[in-house]
Amino acid sequence: MDWIILVLIVLAAAFLQTSTGYGFSIIGTPFLFLLYPAHTAIQINIILSLCISGCMIYKIRNEIDKDLLWRLIKGSILGLILGIFIYLYLDVQWLKITVGALIIISTVLLILKLTIQRATNRDLLTGGISGLLTTSIGVPGPPLLVYFAGVGTAKETLRSTTLAYYLFVYFVSLVMQIFFDGTSQEVWISSMIAIPPLMVGILLGLFLFKWISQKAFKMITYIILLFTGLYLLVTSI
Question: Phi, psi (5° rounding) for residue 114?
């Protein structure tokens, strides 16, 4: 039964990731926490997120904002290092509560038409927060979504640049987690089971992407952020 639930989670999350440029870790990780211990769920999410980013990156490589990508990567370095200590030593429940609250507050501000002025230091800060969330709970997306929505980034640029960025932060995070805390057979068996529905979700998402308008894209962003924030709070309190 758990494997059926895993397949459904991965299928839905991969579909969202491919069609919108985000969504796999944001939707997948909270539900994976229901099936697996925290560290197992985080590593499964990272492995599958690496697969989906690797499958898509060649097709959309020409849409990447390379300057923005480089700033996000540079900013993420310190966050990745700090995040591994959170992963190893801090109670994941408290981190989930904090992240959930921040997501809800940020999303409400965006719905109220909050705008953010694009700046190099803000690119770096966004990368830093994202990096911290990747090594700690395997969810780099929320700060990127909030920032890119605030500055009005086009959906094509958002999807391609975040996927390229994810390849870096997920790979580094997985290596750091395995090096400092190890891994398990359950992580890799579950990941292999999830790859077929992952591929189906990718294909469906690629088909839908061209039909999503910028307005609909923003609405999907807000719905996913609010859902994730509320879900993290409810399941952590």
Answer: -65, 135
